[in-house]
Write a structure and sequence with these properties.
By secondary structure, the protein is mainly α. It is built from 5 helices and no strands.
C-alpha cells in the first residue's frame, strides 16, 4: 500500500492548483464558467486529499516501525503531516466559504478572505510537496520499500 501514496497526491495537487488558476482567470475575464470550474476543482481536489492522507499515514507508520533509520526522518515526516493537515483545513475553509456563499468572488469583503485562503493553500501545497520530495530524494524515505 505504501507505493500508492505517490500515485494519490498528484491529482489533488493538480486540481487545487487548477482551482487557483481558474479563479485567477475568472477574476480577469469574468466568465462564470471559469468560476464554476474552479469550484469543481476545489471540492474534487479536497475530496481526493483523503486517499493521499490515508496512504501517506500508512507509509509513514510502516517506515517508522520497520526501519532502523526511521527515527532520523521523524522530524521531516511530522512536518510533512502537519503541513498536510494545515493544507486540508485551509482548503476545507475555502470550500465551506464558497459553498455557503456561491457569489463570494462578487462580494469585495468576502472575496478577500476567500482569496487569502486559496493563496495560503497554494503556498502550503508547494511547501508540502517540497518536504515530500526532500524526504524521498534527500533522505531516501520510501525508496527501498515502504
Amino acid at each position: 500500500m505504501y507505493a500508492l501514496h505517490p500515485l494519490t497526491v498528484h491529482l489533488p495537487i493538480g486540481l487545487l492548483i487548477g482551482n487557483a488558476l481558474l479563479t485567477a482567470l475568472y477574476l480577469r475575464r469574468g466568465d462564470p464558467a471559469l468560476e464554476t470550474s474552479a469550484y469543481h476543482c476545489l471540492w474534487l481536489g479536497l475530496l481526493l486529499t483523503l486517499p493521499a492522507v490515508l496512504t501517506g499515514t500508512y507509509a509513514a507508520v510502516w517506515h517508522l516501525t520497520s526501519s532502523a533509520a526511521g527515527n532520523s526522518a521523524l522530524g521531516w515526516i511530522n512536518a510533512h503531516a502537519l503541513v498536510g493537515i494545515a493544507l486540508v483545513v485551509v482548503y476545507w475553509q475555502a470550500w465551506q466559504q464558497r459553498r455557503r456563499h456561491p457569489a463570494v468572488l462578487a462580494d469585495v469583503h468576502k472575496r478577500r478572505g476567500y482569496l487569502v485562503r486559496l493563496g495560503l493553500g497554494v503556498a502550503l501545497l508547494v511547501l508540502d510537496g517540497w518536504i515530500g520530495g526532500h524526504m524521498v530524494y534527500a533522505l531516501g524515505v520510501g525508496v527501498n520499500g515502504p
